[in-house]
Amino acid sequence: MAKLSKESKQRLQQLFQCGQFVVRWGFIPTVLYLGFKRGADPGMPEPNLLSLLWG
């Protein structure tokens, strides 16, 4: 295993923390965006923000 300097370890740790933040806070908005972009299946009502909040 390669030896990493303390500075390199800190940079990698910060990179992983940023990645975790993006995944945690970006997953649900991405799923919602893709759902609205693709639209409803045939025979289903079109999704809208009000129907999501009401149900």
Could you describe the 3D structure shown?
The protein has 55 residues and is mainly alpha-helical. The protein has one domain (6-54). 71% of the residues lie in helices and 0% in strands. The termini are far apart. Pfam families: Tom7. It is found in: Mitochondrion outer membrane. Keywords: Membrane, Mitochondrion, Mitochondrion outer membrane, Protein transport, Transmembrane, Transmembrane helix, Transport. It is a single-pass membrane protein.
The overall number of domains is: 1
| SS strand fraction | under 5%
* H/E topology pattern: HH
Low-confidence stretches: none
The end-to-end span amounts to 53 Å
Give the overall average pLDDT: 85
> How many separate helices?
2
**How large is the radius of gyration?**
20 Å
**Shape, please?**
rod-shaped
Structural class: mainly alpha
Helix content bin: over 70%
**What characterizes the major β-sheet?**
none
User: Strand tally, please?
Assistant: 0
Organism: Nothobranchius furzeri (Turquoise killifish)
Keywords: Membrane, Mitochondrion, Mitochondrion outer membrane, Protein transport, Transmembrane, Transmembrane helix, Transport
InterPro entries: Tom7
Pfam families: Tom7
Structural descriptors:
transport; mainly alpha; rod-shaped; about 0% strand; transmembrane; protein transport; about 55 residues; 2 helices; membrane
Quick structural gist:
The chain is mainly alpha-helical.
